[in-house]
Batch of 4 targets.
Target 1
Amino acid sequence: MSNELLAGRYDAALLDLDGTIYEGGRAVPGALEGLTEAGLPMLFVTNNASRAPETVAEQLRSLGYDCDADDVMTSAQAAIEMAADIIPEGSKVLILGAQSFRDLATDAGYELVDSADDEPAAVFQGHNPGTNWAMMSEAALSISRGAKYLASNLDTTLPTERGLLVGNGSMVAAIVSATGVEPRSAGKPLPPMFHRGAARLESERPIVIGDRLNTDIAGGNAAGYDTLMTVTGISGHHETLSAIPEERPTLIGADMSALVAPAEHAEPRPQAGFTAERDADDPAVIVIGGGDASDARLADPARAAVAALLTAASVAWFDADGAPSTAPVTGVRTTSEAAAAAVAAWR
């Protein structure tokens, strides 16, 4: 077994926030401890456009992180940077978003308006709990009259300690329904935020860490970086096993402690004494064994569950020749008590 720790492969970490570092106002267990021990330079990359970078940094400091506004990149910042290529400085723009988004637009040299009658050149939309019908109607009128439509991100939900709330993507869907116009999106899963983040850290080998397959993981993959999914937020074990190739993480961890564990413990391969097989005529994956009593992961339900998931992924995600498989996965079966207990902990 290699003694190489996972964090040793990389020179920086690009980190999601909601579901990865915190959930609403509550810290994700083990995240701070794992990242502190890993010691990688960090940039927090978030699709949430409702708060200014300094406000995010203030919350992170309250959780024990040593960071400031420059350690945070929001999708609102990415949207403003994207707009520079298509909207001339000084243009009128209508913002459906928080005050921090409006401030970014003003700082970029745009003139803010609130009515379609002012003929804005563009509409920017980011998450803002205060967005109402009248505001959305002005945005829809503007877009129907030819304004460019840019969204900070398309996340349909916003994770909180109470559960999943309505995200910016769901609000965007209302505008799309009214206008028939799809926005250009600046945030994850598109790769520019990750490329800009790596450049800010002067990183050549960053690892992208997140909890959501269709944004964090898909975006990191699209950027060409290794991705680590922590099973602490939106995407669960079953969804991960059946993910399409573009959304499959390079690595999986029960939590951030995976960074300071042996690298091979996070790879899709047989783990902790488990093996897996798949019949060509059966879309289910069979997880077998798990009798390696010397492996401490089996004593921890969360880590045993990830060990079984990685083992199952090793046959679900790859053909016999090692090429990515697109064959659907419809279920998981087990043939031992240890495997059954591990899979029972999946969500």
Target 2
Amino acid sequence: MKSIWFFDDVNLFKVLCPHKFKAYKANHDFDAYKKKDYIYFEEDSANKVYLIEKGKVKIGYYSEEGDEVVKAILTRGELFGETAILGESKREEFAQSIDNATSICPIGVDTMHDLMRNNQTFSFKIYKLIGFKLKKLERRLQLLLFKDTKTRLVEFLDELCSDYGYDCEKTGDKVIHHPYTQKDIASLIGTSRPTLNILLNELKEEKVIQFSRKEIRIHKKTA
């Protein structure tokens, strides 16, 4: 599985977007956002779910101290705002574009429920997807609370490897082509970009990884 937002090798965007369905096509539009635009805020009404056609979206919330906590950074084909399907009436997080050309496919909750009622197998997959997403979020929050920064980075790299990695046959290394910037990764593991850069270079010096802007290579462990 390349990403938790893909199931049975099917991109959710190709399956869900209402412009694929004649009954909804006429009244369906895409929404465009620039960098730092908000799709929704905490406490907004939860009456839609969203699919990303292109660009990137940050999901997060603010702590009581006013600090931003990033829960996820999502890219093309990924779903967010899905707790509205489960009956959430108010948003408990914000969603913000972090790309200058983000395009979003909004789906009303009623439309989503119609699609799910008409296909029991599809409905089961959506609920399974939501459960998997919640488990992954819980694991990330546990890392933020109980692990040191370097451990959080190493475990995040393992997660990236599962989502985006493949084996290099010549060397046995794991090669990861991913959509995140260093700022994105720093936000996701709860640290600063300078600290992240220091830790990445430490892992490089320890011959654990090599990295460039969009590729991370995890070296094969030797006995």
Target 3
Amino acid sequence: MPQPKFSGVIPPVVTPDNPDHTLDVRSYGRLIDRMVGSGVNGLFLLGSTGEVAFSNDAHREDIVREGIRIVAGRVPVLVGCIDTETDRVIEHARRAQALGADAVVATAPFYALGGLDEIEEHFRILHEEIDLPILAYDIPACVHSKIPWKLALRLGQDGVLAGVKDSSGDDVNFRYLVQENEKAGHPLSLLTGHEIVVDGAYLSGADGSVPGLANVIPAPYVRQYEAYRAGDWAHVKELQDQINEVSHIFDVTAGVQGYAGGVGAFKCALNLMGVFDHDTMPRPVRALEGANREAIRKVLVDNGVLGA
């Protein structure tokens, strides 16, 4: 099986902040070094997990500049250039390129919603004006537009897109995209953003995963990808089952939802593990505390991630 340029385990990096909401560079370094040392194949800065939607331009620049400095060329760095409309995405992408990004990741336009013609033109304009590989980020829950497999494949065949990061929850569309991509000569790198069912995506033929939980437990995801490459499907499933036990950090909390329960759980876990000095959340989201924090601690202890 050929290995595309962007493949393997490419975690969407959690952004650690100080209590004053500036970037916590020391914690950022520990997090990145830990994942790279575990053997990840790339890093995705400023994804949804990386607080792109909460970060102003100056904070985005700090996250990208410091992240690329810390990585120091050890793995490819993908940068989320996510904004409402095409011209803003181009601005972010040009800055990411100047800072040393290896690829950019962009969603369909949002807020001023259009149709498929506008989505296609959006990506074609990005390709014309950005001199970096572009991966489409398919996340309709946030941008309210779906990128159908036929459109993604056409853009891949035309050299507009280098890949797709699929967080759509549409397993049928992803399955068709993988199959038709293979028939077309594999123009796209296809990455799943669904960390709980990576084994199923690999069985379909995905090129890799973008699992937020790899911030907490990178090594099992790396071993799972290696088992996939080796055709050891029993081990692929076994590792997914182990990973999923840790994923219950998402559902043992009470009274929180959305970002607070997802990225909030990551930050809480990383703080408990000593990777992050703080578990500061972006305003107006509150950090997990009290019984919720202890519930996450118990999951980590029960699964050997954290000492008792």
Target 4
Amino acid sequence: MTPITEVEGRRLALSNLDKVLHPATGTTKGELLHYYATVGAAILPHLRDRPVSFLRYPDGPDGQLFFTKNPPPGTPAWVKTAPVPRSEDPRARQVMVQDLASLMWAANLVVEFHTPQWRAGAPAVADRLVLDLDPGPPASVVECCLVARHLRERLAADGLTAYPKTSGAKGLHLLVPLEPTPSERVSAYARRLAVEAEAELPGLVVHRMAKALRRGKVFVDHSQNAAAKTTATPYTLRARPLPAVSAPVTWAEVEACASPDRLVLLLDDIAPRLERYGELLAPLFDPAVAGALP
């Protein structure tokens, strides 16, 4: 029998609570749902007002994975959606996770949450910049941290402040709060930063995606600033054998990173970190911190 629970006045059917989703730790779907209920206050500001894309992994990371932007079949009428026209579907809409009930409904589908750098009320006008630092083996997060420190200084030279988070996979993301800026302009600036970083750190950085170029280097992926692209939302669980989270870290942790396992954050780590550090990404929501592109 599927348990029924009530969240903020909405009745939700939560299914398969004992199913193991992350085999490396035996983490169950029930534990996944408990995680999202616990960190709801942290993740919701990063989801709210942004059209959400889902990477679904209902049978765990070793099962079928599929990426969807359309509202899944059976989406309740009370889950808000927003128009996000696409060339292949001018009437397309996407889910908006505005509250805890919507978050728990989506989490029950077993998803990674992915969001664009803009809000539904201002499509293709970014309020943040993202740089995705992706290591090509044998490089690891250690090399990503070196590149992150370089980019932090470069951004600061332009009056911009970067905040790091783990990707939840192998690398790091740098998030930069911006005054509202057309995505096309943000994309061009981010690409310029990546090209400059490769020129200044040629043995460490590559700005092109081709895997043949990436061995032992860090790919500075600037492409996620395009209006049509999305990035793993802060605090989302990832479809990995370990229940890894894309979670904020301190610059002190980035500077001290000396081994590939240092910045692996799992779902049980996040609540204690929120108690210890608070919301490290809170400045992303402070208009006084938002910078202007040069």
